[in-house]
Structure formats: structure tokens, C-alpha cells
Amino acid sequence: MDTLLLFGSFLLCLCVGVPVAASLGIASVIYLLAVDIPLVVVPQKMYAGMDSFVLLCIPGFILAGNLMNSGGITQRIIRFATALVGWIKGGLGLTNIVGSMIFAGISGTAVAEAASIGAVMIPGMQRAGYPAQFAAALTSSASTVGPIIPPSVPMIIVGALTGISVGRMFMAGAIPGLLLGAGMMITCYVISARRGYPHQPWRGWRELGKATWGALWALAMTALVIGGILSGEVTPTETAIVAVVYALVIGLFVYRALGWRDVGRIVVDSAISSAAILVLVGFANVFGWILASEEIPQKISAVVLSITHNKYLVILLLNILLIIVGMFMETIAALLILFAPLVTIAQGVGIDPVHFATFAVLNLMIGLSTPPVGVCLFVCANIARLPLSAVIKELMPFLIANIVVLLIVSYVPAVSLWLPDLLFGQ
Fold first, then answer.
1. Please, are residues 59 and 50 in contact by the beta-carbon 8 Å criterion?
2. Could you tell me if 201 and 277 lie in one domain?
3. Is the domain of 73 the same as that of 10?
4. Which residues, in sequence order, are CB contacts of 23 under 8 Å at separation 6+?
5. Is residue 47 assigned to a domain?
6. How far is residue 78's CA from residue 98's CA, in Å, rounded to a whole number?
7. Does residue 145 share a domain with residue 10?
């Protein structure tokens, strides 16, 4: 009965529009009052959830991404992507995807990517003759690459939850992220060729060289993050701080698109974004402690394993559950609430936790561009000034491509495990 009260109050809060973090906190307090547990547990467990050295990566990477974006990096990335693939059929669509893949190595968040790339590419594609709904659907889908290609905020959260190396989690997402981008590029090319969408003329090697030089500092930041982690000389948290210093220097003194007055505003905005995530982590830890005390993960695992012990059927069930959850819940909240019980199920049938974490995050990323609560879908539809219904129809081919990649990652463990095993050992 107490468990029903916990979940019932949580779902009720979500249905009436209460933010996820507050919903977790309210449901937890109601449960604690019902079972007569002192409310001092709330601040204790919140602090315990946030007191993690790994979580310091989050404000670091968010600040570094915001500094680079405000420092003029978006336009340079798009120019580079245009010179690279803009001459192919459907060139601006391909530019959108390649730009998102490069930006993914800087921001680590899908919503920031959708807003930054979308603000430039959606109007640009419209002016070039692409339908607004196609541009919005493409941008929404492409933005989901952000949290897969390292650095990745959801991967940091998974590392904090499980104790798995964040570096290993970053590398596990690299190949799936590239596959996701490749799948969307193929889909974009086929649609563009059939519909006769325009492409730009080849501008020559000189333009490609200039564009590459302009985007070189942005590309170098990705290399800095990955290289620092792989070298073992710095922790992921220290790498995030190095990335902040690097982004500040590039924005102020190299690109010179960033002023000292802008830095204060960017720091405040990044602090607000980081605080929102950490509050969510804190309340989710209270909620998770209650779930653990009620042995909910073990009960869920027992129910699923009573249905089947077949590894492949369990993967299918987990994917279906996560896709449905991703349609209604924000990614980090879903990970914080569901990861512990679901990884127990996965390990029960012999699924490697890194492999499971990779396709779980990929699953939830796809949910960011699917109705009814796809945040990236809302952002891109608002930029294009279109109703969701118009964008959803154009979204379907990209959604199918993403699901195909998801199935490959889910059923071929080497896609996510080969690179971390190669670099860090088994």
C-alpha cells in the first residue's frame, strides 16, 4: 500500500504538470510521512546523492559548451560541415547532421544542440527551399546524437550511479553515436534524392581548407576531452575544468566573439542548468533509497525473469519499456529512477552493464524527439513556428533509422564494448 502511495503521488504530480524533480521530492515526503520516517532523511539522502566527485563533470562540461557556443563556434561548425558535405544531394540536411555530430563533442546535451544548431539551420534550410517541417524534424532527430558521442551528461550520470569508469562510458557511446549519425545521413540523402531537394555547388578545396581551419579549435576541444581521459593523466572531472579554460581562451582571444561581460552571464546560466540537474539527482536519490528499502528493483527483476530468461527477449522488453518511458519522461530523471532496477534485470541474464547502459541511454535519447513530451521536438517546432503534428509526419523516417541503429547496438554488444575494451582492457 505504501509503495502504491509513493508511485501514485509521483504520477499524479507529473500529470498536473509539476516538474520531475519536485514530483520526486513530493512523492518521497508523502511516503516518509505515511510510514512515519523522520523527514531528516530527505536532506541526508539528497546530500549523499550529490556528494560525488564524478558529478562535478556536469557543470564543467555545461559551462565549456556554453562558452564555446557563445564564442561563435556554431557558425564555424556549420561552415565546415557545409564545405564538407553541402555539395551532396540534400546538402544542407547533411550539413545539419554533421554539424550536430561535431557539436556533440562540445556540448554533451541534446537540448542545447537542438537550440543552437536549429536556430541557424532551420531558417537556413527554409530559405534554400527545404520544407520547414522537414528541417525541424531533421534537426530534432540529429540533436539526439549529442548525449551519445562523448562528452555526455547522461553517461556521467550512469557512471555516478554504477561506479563504472566515466571514460569507459564515454568510449562506449562513440561508435553508436557515429552509427546514429550515419543512419540519419543515409535517410536524409534518400529522401532528398526522391524529393529533389537542392544542394550547393562544390566550393573547392580552398573553401574546405578555410572552413577546416575556422573549426579547428572546436574540433581540438573534442580531441582534448577524449585525449585527456584516455591518457589517464587527468580524471574526467579535471578534463571538464581544462575544457572550460580552453573554451574561455578560444572565445576571448582566438575567435574574439566572446567578451568579458558575456562570461558572467554564461557562468550564471550554466550554474542554473547545473543546479537543476543536481537537485534532480538529489531528490532522485531519496526516491531511489525508498525503492531500495522496499526492494522494488528485486521485485521488478523477479517479475521479468519469471516471464523469460532468454537474453534476447529481455533486451526486447527493456527496449520497449525504455522507449515508452522516453516518450514521457526527461532522460536524466528516467535514468535516476529506472537504471538500478533495470540493470539488475540485465545482469541477471548476462548483459554487460556498460552494454546495457549504452543502449538504455540511446533509447532515452530517441525519446527526446518523439511525441508527446519530446523536448527537442518542441524546441525545433517552436523555431520553425509549426504545430507538432506537421513535424511528426516528417520525423517518422528518421525515427525508423534511429530504431534500426538501436537494435544493432542492443543485439551486437561489440558495437558498444569493443572500443572501451580496446582502450581500457576488459
1. no
2. yes
3. no
4. 10, 13, 14
5. no
6. 8
7. no
Task: Tell me, yes or no, whether 23 and 131 share the same domain.
Answer: no
Q: What is the pLDDT of residues 410-420, one digit of tens each?
A: 999 999 999 88
Query: What is the CB neighbour count within 10 angstroms for residue 84?
Result: 19
Q: What is the dihedral of CA 216, 220, 221, 225, to 10 degrees?
A: 160
Cell numbers at 133, concatenated: 517541417
In a domain, 46, yes or no: no
State how far the alpha carbon of 287 is from the alpha carbons of 26, 48, 50, 174, 300, in Å: 10, 12, 13, 31, 16
Q: Which residue has cell 531528490?
A: 283
Angle at 215 between CA 212 and CA 218, to 5 degrees: 140
Residue 167 and residue 98 share a domain: yes
Q: Is the pTM of this model over 0.85?
A: no
Whether 403 is covered by a domain: the verdict is: yes
pLDDT for residue 232? 66
Q: Count the domains in the chain.
A: 2
Residue 417 CA to residue 357 CA, distance in Å, equals: 11
Comparing 44 with 104, the larger pLDDT belongs to: 44
Question: Is the residue at 44 inside a domain?
Answer: no
Residues 189 and 311 in one domain: yes
Domain that holds residue 78: 53-424
- % of residues, the chain, pLDDT over 70: 93
Grid coordinates representing 368 are 527526446
Those residues whose C-beta lies under 8 Å from the C-beta of residue 11, and which sit 6 or more positions away, are: none
pLDDT digits (tens, 9 = 90+) for 253-279: 887 777 888 888 888 888 887 787 788
Cα-based angle 351, 352, 353 (whole degrees, multiple of 5)? 110
The Cα–Cα gap between 141 and 137 comes to 6
Same domain (yes/no): 4, 135: no
pLDDT confidence tier of residue 24, bands split at 50, 70 and 90: confident
